[in-house]
Design goal:
Layout lengths: L15 H17 L5 H31 L12 H33 L2 E3 L7 H15 L5 E4 L13 E11 L2 E10 L7 E3 L7 E5 H7 L1 H4 L4 E12 L13 H12 L4 E6 L5 H11 L6 E3 L10 H5 L25 H7 L2 E5 L5 H12 L3 E8 L6 H12 L3 E6 L7 H13 L3 E3 L6 E2 L2 E9 L2 E9 L5 H4 L2 E8 L2 H15 L11 E3 L3 H17 L5 E6 L5 H13 L2 E6 L16 E6 L4 E2 L2 E5 L6 E5 L5 H5 L1 E7 L3 H16 L5 E4 L5 E3 L11 H11 L31
Parallel strand pairs: 1-6, 8-9, 11-12, 12-13, 14-25, 17-22, 19-20, 20-21
Antiparallel strand pairs: 2-4, 3-4, 3-7, 5-6, 7-8, 10-17, 11-15, 15-16, 16-17, 18-25, 19-23, 21-26, 23-24, 24-25, 26-27
Helix pairs in contact: 1-2, 1-3, 2-3, 11-12, 16-17
Amino acid sequence: MADAPRQFEPAHFINRELSWLEFNQRVLDEALNPATPLLERVKFFCITSSNLDEFFEVRVAGLKQQIESEVVKRSVDGLTATETFRAVTRRVREMVSQQYRCWREELVPNLDRNGIRFHEIGALSAVDQEWIDTYYRTEVRPVITPLAIDPAHPFPQLLNKSLNMIVQLEMRQGKHLLRHLAVVQVPRVFPRLVKLPRDDSRQDYVFLGRLIAHYLADLFPGTRILGSWMFRVTRNSELYIDEEEAANLLKAVEQELHNRRRGEAVRLEIEPGCPAEIRQALLGTLHLSEEDLYEVDGPLNPTRLMMLYEGDHSPELRDPPFVAPVAEVLRDQTDLFAAIRERDILLHHPYDNFGSVIEFLQRAAEDPNVLAIKQTLYRTGGDTRIVGALMKAVENGKQVTVVVELRARFDERNNIEWARRLEENGVHVVYGLVGYKIHCKTTLVVRRDPDGIRRYLHLGTGNYSASTARLYTDLGLLTCRPDLGEDATNLFNLLTGICQFQGTRKFMVAPFQLHRRMLELIAREAANARQGLPARIIAKMNSLVDPEIIEALYRASQAGVNIDLVIRGICCLRAGVPGVSDNISVRSIVGRFLEHSRIFYFENGCRPEVYVGSADWMPRNFFRRIELVFPIEDGVLRERLKREVLDVQLADTAKARLLQTDGTYRPALPADGSPPRCSQSEFIASATDGTRTWRRSRKPRRTHPEVRLLPSPFKKPERG
C-alpha cells in the first residue's frame, strides 16, 4: 500500500514555461558574469536571444493557441494558459531588460576597451564615410526594395525574425502635406555588422540597419523623412503535418517549412522612441496586443552578432583552446573492430574526439568484410564525412539503410537536402514511423568475422554531428555484445518495416516500455530503502517534465531514497518541499559546453545499474518519439560513469546552480571556503594530461560469436 500512487498538490510542481525561462536566465548569467572571458560573454548574450526566439516560436505560440481555443484547463502546476502567458510575459520583460542593460553598460564598453567598436555614421572620419558611401551604393542599394504602405500597397508579408524598418515620411501632394508609412527590409544576405577597413588590429563596425537608415532620403526621393525605427516580428514556427494524409512526408515537410516562414505573429520587438500611433498600427496589422510588444534598447536579433565571437580576435578574450584527443583506449589501436571485440568502449564527448565515431563509420564503409550498415540521423550538421561514408559504402557494394528524421526542429531543411543526396547515391532512406519522431542515435554494422557474423554498434546520447560534438557533452558506446546487437536489429526492423514492437532483451525503447521501466526502477529503489537496503538515484538529463515520473521520485524521496538530479534545462519537480522532496537535490550546470548527455544511475542494493540514452524524462520523449536507453554492462565503465562523471558534476561549485523550493536557482558555492570546482574544466584537464584513472581491463573480455536469436512475441506499446 505504501507504493500506491497519491495525488500531489499543484504547488508541488513548477510551471514548465517558467522553469525554461529560469534556464535561460542561467545562460544570461554567464553573459553577466565578469569572470567569463569577454567574447564568451558576447556568445552567451547571443544565445540568450536565440533561445528566446525559439521559445516564442514554439512555446509562446502554443500558449496563444490554447488561449484562443475553447478548451480551458489547468496544467499540472495549477495554471491556465492565460495565467501562464501573463507570468511568462512578466518574466521575459525582466530578462530582456537585464540582457540589454548588460549590453549597453558592460559588453559595449568592454569591447571598446579591447579595440572592438560600434560607430554611428555621422561620427565617422571623412575616409570612412567615403568607404561607407561606396559600400552602400555598390552593394546594399541594389538589393533594397522600399515598400510603401497605402491602399494600393498593403502591408508586406514579413519573414519570421527578419529585421525591418518602419519609416514615417512626409510628401507634398498639391497644396497638402501628407504623411505616409513605408517598410524597408534589412537584407539577410549581408552581415548585420559592416566591418570598416583597417590596416591594424582594430575592429570597427557599423550596424547595417543604421547604415540603411542614413540613406533613407536616397530611397524615398522627394520626401521628408520624419523618423525610422527598427522592428522585428517573431512567428509561430511549429510544423503541423497530418502524416496519415501526407502521401509523401518529404514534400509535406517542405511545404510546411514554406508555411512556417509566414506563420501567425506572436511577438513584435521595436526600438524605443517609436510613436504610439505607429506601434499601434503595427500591432493591429499583425493582430497582436500590447502584451506582445517588447521595446528593445539595443540591437534587435543579437543572434547575428555571433560574428563578433566567431571573428579572429585576441585569445585572451576567449576560453582557452581545447582540441579533444583521441580516447586513450583507442590511441594505439590499428584494428578498431578488434578493439571493440576486446571490450566495450565508452566515449565522452567533447573530451574524447568525435573523430573515433566517424572513423568507425568510415572503416565500416571500406572494410570488405562489412555486409551492411544501418544508421539513424536526427541532425547531421552537414558533416560530409558521415554522409560521404554512407555513400562510399554503397559504392563498395554494402547494404546501407538510413533512417532520417525530417522533422528535427529547425534543422528540417538541412535534413531534406541530405536525405535527397543519400537517395541519389543509392542509400536506402527511410523516414521512420507515422506519428513518431525518430530521436534515438544508433549505428549498426554487420560484419563477417572469422568466427561468424557479428554486429557492431555505436549507441549514443547525441547527434551524428562533428560540429555539435565539439560543443555538446555526450556519451557514445562502441560494443558488439550479441544481446545488444539483436535488440538493435529488432529496432531497425521496426523503423524500416511493417511490424509491431517485438520487445527487447536489454534496450528500453520509447514509446513501448521506457516509461514503465523507468517507473519500475524508481519504485525498486523506494522498496529497497524501506527494507533498509542501500538506495540511491542519480539522473542526468536535459529536462524533467513528466508528472508520473516526478510523483514516483516524490514517493521514493518519502521512502528515504537519496536522489541527486543534474538537469540542465526544464525541471518541473519542486525540490526541498517538506515531507515530499526532502531527499531530492536538483542542480543545473551551464558552462562552456552544453550539457546534453543522459545518464541514469540506480544503486539497486549495492548492485548498481547504469543506463545511458537519448531520452529526457518528458512526455514527448516517452510517448511521441522513438527513443533508446541502453545499459552499461561493463563494470569498469559503470564505475567510471559514476565516479568520474556523475560524482564530479555533483561536486561542481563553479558552474552549478541549485534549484530552490520557490523555483529559482542559486550558485552551488563551496561550503568550506575551498576553491570552486568546475566539472567541465576537470574533464578537459583529465583528457589532456592523461590523469583519468579508468583504463581498459588488462584481462580482455571474452568474445562471443554472433548467434541467431528467435524474436520474442509481439508486444503492444505500454504506458506506465
